Amino acid sequence: MAVRKNKKQVPEPTLRRLPNYLFFLEKVREKGVMNISAPSIGKELKCDPTQVVKDLAFTGVKGKPRVGYNTYELCHALEEFLGFNHVNEAFLVGAGNLGSALMAYQEHQTLGLKVIAAFDVDEKKIGQHIGNTPVLEYNKLFHLSNRLDVEIAILTTPNDVAQEVAEDLVNCGVKAIWNFTHEILDLPDDVIIQNTSMSSFAAVLLQRLNDSKK
Ligand SMILES: NC(=O)c1ccc[n+]([C@@H]2O[C@H](COP(=O)([O-])OP(=O)(O)OC[C@H]3O[C@@H](n4cnc5c(N)ncnc54)[C@H](O)[C@@H]3O)[C@@H](O)[C@H]2O)c1
């Protein structure tokens, strides 16, 4: 997985950990806990407390000596920092098995990402709704992107058309692509590409399991 470019220059491992802090702190906050220390957070998330302090410093919130972090303040700061409290509209291209599952996963909305339209070339899928989201004819992408200022796209087409579709998306004003295909996209440097592959995680899982048996 790689974020090619990040304006805030926050290290990618930190960016990947920040949602975990938020999910944990939300649970803590729900239990009515007002303050929590970096070592307590680290213990729960199996992370070094020094790393916790470094990571959370990116939100601008600092813990107080012997008191720790205010959970309400920190949750709010994390949501704000991650952009989870704003809705960022996204297109999805390729409403097949994976695309449909992602669309049906409405929790994306709480992650600041909302798929407002999906595009496909399969006539059987065009006109359907997945959740509340319509699946539109692929060519409508070009008309719709003129009217809507959508900068994010989720790419779940077959691999062999991914590059072509990604180029179309960029021509339609998309600036960030969450690429679930296995295609290594070749796009202008200013386009942000987030590659996500279950196979990579599966490879690590299987290798670690095998290692543990040696
Ligand atoms: N990242 C991961 O971990 C992961 C996991 C599973 C699948 N994948 C990849 O995700 C992609 C989709 O997999 P799937 O199982 O959902 O496939 P699928 O065949 O079920 O879905 C693909 C969809 O894309 C549509 N499509 C085909 N050509 C198109 C085009 N030119 N423009 C728009 N839509 C087009 C098809 O009609 C179909 O609805 C594949 O590239 C696959 O390799 C990735």
TrEMBL record:
Record organism: Draconibacterium sediminis
The entry's keywords: Cytoplasm, DNA-binding, NAD, Repressor, Transcription, Transcription regulation
GO term, biological process aspect, one: negative regulation of DNA-templated transcription
Assigned GO CC terms: cytoplasm
Protein name according to UniProt: Redox-sensing transcriptional repressor Rex
UniProt entry tagged with the keyword NAD: yes
Family note: Belongs to the transcriptional regulatory Rex family.
Amino-acid positions noted as binding NAD(+) in the UniProt annotation, renumbered to this chain: 94-99
Location (main, coarse): cytoplasm
